[in-house]
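re: ur question from earlier - yeah i can do the single chain one, its not a big deal. heres the input i used so u can compare w yours
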Amino acid sequence: MQTNQLNLLTFPLWWYTRGLRTVWAWAKQRARYDLRATGLLLFSRHMSEPLFGDYTRSGRLVGFFLRLAILIYKLFILCVRIILIGIALLFYLVAIPLVIIMIIKQLFLFG
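and the output i got, formated as tokens:
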């Protein structure tokens, strides 16, 4: 009978195997959600359609550039969200080594 007990020796192994797999799945799910939340793909499909049904040349031109500006803004927001997810992943990867370094520093370096 196998038990999945975490202790001080098996915790780092769990952190970088099952824990990392769980965090990676969260990051992928969050990135997909952010892509849907910004509506970037849907918005880019309708770039050529005029705003408010204004099919005149000036209406199409204004609509295209307005949508282009909104698309750039949405792309910027998506990039910021993806960068924040990457920072969270990076923090997850370096958390244990940083904790070990700080414990060693506190125990053995008195000055």
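The mean pLDDT is 88. not sure if urs matches, ping me
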